[in-house]
Design brief:
rod-shaped
Length: 159
């Protein structure tokens, strides 16, 4: 009789370990001889904006079978692209700097104009207040003069 305490039979196939996701990009390598001869190639391929991930993978796959001339052409293309993009970035930054300076100058002119307008308005208001004060003082003086004239006309003259 079989022992009922025995573990149930398991598959004789070994269990496969589930792959762990470590990085979304596959690890790509350039053969050491090519990397030694062209040290910038991997960085240029990885950073170019003109390739998709599939295209990068394609280039990594065919690099080992490419001739030196083909690798030099690829390197030349990627280097030229990088130089042109750097040149465009520099031109863009220079243009952006010009625009910023222009707008800063326009803003300062705008602020100066507003300040002049406020000063002009304050000066105009001060002049109006001064004129009103002068008119009020003149009216008071005129009232005093007319009061004095009225008093003087009531005083008998000894002539």
């Amino acid at each position: 009789m079989a022992n009922s305490n025995q573990n149930p039979p398991t598959d004789s196939k070994p269990q496969k370990a589930k792959p762990q996701k470590t990085d979304s990009k596959p690890k790509r390598q350039i053969p050491p001889a090519i990397l030694k001869k062209y040290p910038d190639l991997q960085t240029l391929i990885d950073t170019t904006e003109s390739m998709t991930e599939e295209e990068r993978n394609y280039w990594y796959q065919i690099l080992p079978i490419m001739t030196d001339e083909q690798i030099q052409k690829l390197l030349g293309i990627l280097t030229h692209e990088k130089e042109q993009l750097s040149k465009l970035d520099a031109e863009y930054e220079a243009e952006l700097e010009k625009l910023n300076e222009k707008h800063l100058l326009e803003w300062k002119e705008h602020e100066a104009r507003e300040k002049r307008e406020k000063l002009h308005a304050a000066e105009h208001q001060a002049n109006a207040e001064e004129k009103n004060t002068e008119e009020a003082l003149l009216a008071q003086l005129n009232n005093l003069d007319s009061d004095n004239n009225d008093r003087n006309s009531n005083i008998p003259t000894n002539a």
